[in-house]
Design a protein that fits this description.
It is flat and about 35 Å long. It has one helix and two strands; from the N terminus they run ββα. By secondary structure, it is an alpha+beta fold. The protein has one helix at residues 26-40, and strands spanning 4-10, 16-22.
Length: 44
């Protein structure tokens, strides 16, 4: 069975995202998420 990676996170702006990807794209998915989080979530 292919490994499915599901990621859920929300931004302080109120927007929320859910990613569900088959293992194989997960590396690219993680890279996109990390980059997005770094640029869009403010730390208190």
């Amino acid at each position: 069975n292919p490994r499915t990676v599901e990621v859920n996170f929300s931004l302080k702006t109120g927007a929320s995202f859910t990613f569900s990807e088959i293992k194989g794209n997960s590396e690219k998915l993680e890279s996109i998420i990390k980059t997005y989080l770094i640029h869009n979530i403010s730390h208190e």
